[in-house]
Amino acid sequence: MAGVVEAECVKCPVCGGDFEPASINAHLDECLLDHQAESGGDRGGESEPPAKKVRVNGESGGAGVKPERPAAAAAAASGGGTAGVSGGTSTSTSTSTGGGPGVFSLFQNKPKVTEKLEKSSSSTSSYSSSSSSSSSSSFISSSFSNTTATAPNPGMKWESLLNIDKPLAEKLRPSSLEEYFGQNKVVGEQTLMRSLLQSQEIPSLIFWGPPGCGKTTLAHIIASSSKKKGSTRFVTLSATSASTSDVREFIKQAQNELRLCKRKTILFIDEIHRFNKSQQDTFLPHVECGTITLIGATTENPSFQVNSALLSRCRVLVLEKLSVEAMGSILLRAVDSLGLGVLPDDASERKRLMSAEQRCSVSQVWIEQKALDTIAHLCDGDARAGLNGLQLAVQACVAKARSTNTPPPRHILVQEEHIKEGLQRSHILYDKAGEEHYNCISALHKSMRGSDENASLYWLGRMLEGGEDPLYVARRLVRFASEDVGLADPAALPQAVSAFQACHFIGMPECEVILAQCAVYLSRAPKSIEIYTAYNNVKACLRNHKGPLPSVPLHLRNAPTKLMKELGYAKGYKYNPKFNGPVDQEYLPEELRGTNFFTWKR
Known about the structure:
This protein is an alpha/beta fold. The protein is built from 27 helices and ten strands. The protein has helices at 2-8, 24-37, 70-77, 91-96, 112-128, 132-145, 168-171, 184-187, 192-198, 215-229, 244-261, 277-281, 284-289, 302-305, 308-311, 324-338, 347-358, 369-378, 383-404, 416-423, 435-449, 453-465, 470-485, 492-506, 512-524, 530-544, 562-566, and strands spanning 10-11, 18-19, 205-208, 232-238, 264-270, 292-298, 315-318, 341-343, 364-368, 411-414.
């Protein structure tokens, strides 16, 4: 009979007792709770691993106790008391306060964030109960918060600034529209697009804007929102590395998701202008039927770089270059993330902050407000260039301080010259084969036409400093000399041709002053479009003529042979140098006699 009982019993893995199969689940629940509450007793036995010491919150005597042996646990489970619990704490109290783990620590694991918060609160309580040195530190902290300058994060060690494992622009990429600065016209509070993004009713879009204005970031914000709600699948591809087969594979997955899971797919293509026309045609039927929602990002004009059929199925959002104010907000967010302090321009305020900093026990990194302003202006609206330039300057200053000072310095100051050295250039936005190329040459042409010599010099410098071919600019000046100056100043054309030849002889950078001289000369010259208008009238006359073009009058034709003379070629032609006065002779075809192309109205 005993063997039958043993066959039907189940051993508890916690306390080692035997129980019937029908009651083992209820016992396990009770047994685990009891062992979670226990903090006394000795495990004993050399073969068992030692238990971790645990601290029960709110107890003075429970510094470190071991869980009971299985026999003691069985007794406790059967109601034998809680003698092993230090300080007589009840089961419910220990459970609610998160007491020490029992045999199975799996049921007692805490999130890492919770542990950090507990450590922080513990250190805060000890900090507040310390002596006068602690109170003086809190006074310094409060004085920092009352100033316009930003105080460094005292918990941030400056050595950690050298260990940032990714570019600062990528690390601080916003994840919500509240952190997205500088594009209020597109995704501001009252815009239609923001309402569509918040409601997840996202149409197919093309983001067009200069580098660093937030195109990819806006796509990531849409992706983050989609993942939170779980109603849409977000896929990212880069046209610089993806092929047509990759696109077809993702479209096939999108079709399966829509058919099986009723879940839409948003396909984000970065640098979509890198796809040629045939590759862009791959999206057409799937965007049309709603299999995918396409979001493309490009720095080039979509009118020229995106297939017109695809463009008609998408809405183009023009993202502007970030303003200096928007860059200031982005940089302050970065400064706060890095734990830097901002020194104001006011000398007395700087002296007060630095003297207060001397009383702190933690080495701190400061950056001048002037340096932040320099970044905001020099990065030319490119947030990526600005943030990475800030990171480079800060890391260079920290690395220099660590290598040149054996004891760590009291403070590290990032100044304006460090920022300029980190950026190295003014980040002039110019693409010799893109939209900005045509924008700048158009601005130069119109400035000279308007006789604004200062604007002409500016746009000329903008192109040359951006890397434009000087011969291209010189050719445009030659054209301008005839088109817009013309006969009002016949010397303008020789001036422009001479400038072109000089540029061809000596090249950049020496030829820049030659182009500047020519641009100013053409700006100051009187303007006349008489020739330009007359020739355009001639072209219009030829293109709009109905029927065969009129033949050349016989008296104007050349007659080098006897046969031509017999056919009437050159018959009746009056050789003008033989006459002392004007010669009455027709030179236009009979259909156009009396036409004046200088005054002709189409």
